[in-house]
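Following up on my earlier thread - several people asked me to post the actual chain instead of describing it. Fair enough. Here it is, all 353 residues.
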Amino acid sequence: MKPKKVLITGTAGFIGFHLARRLVEGGFDVTGLDVINDYYDVGLKYGRLEQSGITRDRITYNQLITSSNNDTYHFIQLNLEERDSIFELFANRGFDVVIHLAAQAGVRYSLTHPQAYLDSNITGFLNVLEACRHHPVQNLIYASSSSVYGLNKKMPFAVTSNVDHPVSLYAASKKSNELMAHTYSHLFGIPTIGLRFFTVYGPWGRPDMALFLFTRAILNGEPIQVFNHGKMERDFTYIDDIVGGIDSMVLKPPSGGEGWDPSAPDPSFSSAPYRIHNIGNSSPVKLNDFITALEKALGRKAIRQMMPMQPGDVEKTWADVSSLKQEYGYNPGTPVETGIQRFVEWYRSYYKV
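Reply from S.P.:
Thanks for posting it. Predicted structure:
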């Protein structure tokens, strides 16, 4: 049996990189796509690609190349806003499954660069949906975010809750993706799964995230900014738990929601082949405890500079992952101390610290 052809967008990114490696090892024929923008250090992005056998000197824009290490991993540098090129890629490769992780990330960046979120997260996702419509796929899995919960205070965050009160344009763009996906599931029968990620961390992580920023500052003897005076909690989720969860649903697309009641509609599913899931650790950690665990892994104390809450932030996140456990057997099991230790070991090795 020929391996399923999978497109993963955002494979120079943190989650996409790890997921591509996992699926290739699992026997899938994977095509990775990324524009490789400069939102953060492109050297790190190329470093991830090199782990998959894609060196910088081999990349030609809009040209598919195959990894020298594995003939079932291919990469193309391409902007998702280029509709005609996306359609051509879909027509040529004939994908069975699409996992759309590429996006303009970051809550605070959306306060100063709003257009980037419309271009990448709205127009880019529309092009993916249109390509899946005209070149049908068996499953479309896409990245949403825990940020969609916005002003919600009811804990844990549940996919059955209303998410109509975002506090950043980034969150609003992700909520928009969920609505767009439902429309295409309803109109064209495209099976879609939206995943609300909760603070993913681990080796090869994003340098704009707290763990990366804190590690760099502590090793340099610089203060770290602790927002909301440390009164923050996050549902930190280790990368291996995330990619394991996604792997489990690649070949299990949703069907129309039996039992869905349009007179009392549950927003997490539908009569269409559409599902929304939280994917997190379901165990929030106090920010100060997170920093203490990092201090232990580094063997150094942090200089904590207490700061007020930042615009667009929320005080606490906590994922109710019951639907993912029930449907896919999802069971995150990496303690935050273990995950931080693994990140620190990678960081010291990669940066030769």
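The longest strand covers residues 139-145. That should answer part of your original question.
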